[in-house]
Task: structure prediction
Amino acid sequence: MDKNKTKKLMTYRWIVLGILIFAYMIVFFHRLAVAVVREDLVSEFGMSSVTFANLSSTYFYAYMLMQIPSGILADTLGARITVTLGTLAAGMGSIIFGFASNIFWIFLGRLLVGLGVSVVFISILKIQSQWFKESEFATLSGISSFFGNLGGIFAQTPLVLLTAAITWRYSFVAIGIFTIIIAIMCYLLVRNSPSDMGFSTIEELEGKEKRVASSGKIDLIKGLKAVIVNPYTWPSFFMFAGFYGGFGALSGTWGSSYIVQVYGMSNASAANYMTAVVLGLAIGSIIIGKVSDNIKKRKLPMILYGVIYVACWALMVFWNGGKPPIEVLIPLLFVLGFSCSAFILGWGCSKEVNPSEIAGISTSVVNIGGFFGAAILPPMIGGVIDRYGGTLTAIELYQKAFLYCFVFALIGFAFTFLIKETNCENIYSELKK
Result:
């Protein structure tokens, strides 16, 4: 390849990644948005705490169940078409959610959103494996997570202000229309690999053997079986489940209600506090990814972040009877989100202990873990709130509920010690020996 084409490749890959990151920001917006409009939904549709938690979890169940299909689609259909169709579905789901006249349509809209956005991140990981070097993987995962979480920040105070201005219904219709626009941009600008534009592959530029990119060369059943029976896949799965379960329950379902009921704040003020935990995850993700790639280690950063994460949940649950002093709450929430970002290295580990040509499938299996945790934990908390809401004070109620988050964090931390260190390289061939 001549220097001009190489320059074009190096420039265009950022356009491809940038469009997909816009789509990923929409993913996070939808993931966290329901928590902000909880009072509107409960008032309008007469939901119990368990029903609301199940509505929130509908997204995570759909997301979880679609991870292996998402990996297969990314490895066969390609990221371009996969993300285009997924974001179109999510946009339609958001519009249905906004116009819903009863519980059925609310759940259907939420389900369609979850199904649609579920394909985006695995496709981003697949694009990274085709357009970027292996040594850049964790850094790029961190960058993607950083900007994705910025989308989650828009689902906090900005969404509160938007719903106050145009109602929650029109807010979700508007974001649905914007999501469809992103889908169109994906179709027009994203390409699955450099070869789709007549460029050499990244491996060829580095003088390495070309990875399998053609769908016809991938035995999907054999690839999926290889990932599932690989014992090195599962520690990352359970680490992600434990860490993200508590974070998802806090930021996506119960955090705003906790702030309002325990500290007596308004919804707008509570959203500001929840912004801290989402921003913490965004910044933590980009830092841990960069550090991991620089020191060529995965396991050590995860363990160090994990210690801090467990400590933060211990403070949330046990400090001052479950009500940390208000003046330390924002820093505590920020650090909790920051340290939770340990899970992003699990994607790199899963890719590096499985065949490189099935990067989409291997990362999707591990990705199920996080959304499994985030799906089952909110209803558990909702059950505690429904059961003890009339007998315990708000502080006691949320202390009992968030104890589940602390336990999940401990479980996730325990599994970090079982993760195989890869030194940021694919070691699958070595593991087979």
Notes: The chain has one domain: 3-195+219-431. The two ends are 36 Å apart (CA to CA). The first helix runs from residue 3 to 36.
